[in-house]
Amino acid sequence: MTKSEKKIMETMDFLVNKMGWESGKIVKVPYVFKYSLEKRIIPRCSVVRVLLSKGLIEEGKLSLATVITNPEEYFSSKFVTRYVNQVPQLSNVYQGKMDVQDV
């Protein structure tokens, strides 16, 4: 398995098994695989998982493209800063300093 195949498999595994997104929807946004799993996908998805678990956002209104591909400032303002009063630990989750289960 090449490095790029491994990266695709790891990203698909995370998005399908940890986030619960359908593989068919993921492959419709192939450019998501260009982003780092550790530096971008996991931190952003961790924030989304917290917000979903707290009922602050609706899964049906989320798109993979919105979560992963938008610039840092957009994501931070839409998903972190906006909800920091309701979930003070959200910044720590985003920075990888706190696990989703600890929130």
Number of continuous helical runs? 6
Describe the main β-sheet briefly. Answer: none
Q: Quote the distance from N terminus to C terminus.
A: 37 Å
Radius of gyration, in Å, reads 13 Å
Proportion in β-strands:
under 5%
Structural class: mainly alpha
Uncertain stretches of 5 or more adjacent residues: none
**Helix and strand element order:** HHHHHH
Helix content: 55-70%
Outline type: globular
How many distinct beta strands?
0
Mean pLDDT across residues: 92
Task: Please tell me about this protein's structure.
This protein has 103 residues and is mainly alpha-helical. It contains 6 helices and no strands. Helix 1 packs parallel to helix 3. It is globular. The protein starts with a helix and ends in a 9-residue tail after the last helix.
Write the layout of secondary structure elements.
Elements: H1 3-18, H2 23-27, H3 37-53, H4 64-69, H5 72-80, H6 90-94
Keywords summarizing the entry:
103 residues; mainly alpha; 6 helices; globular
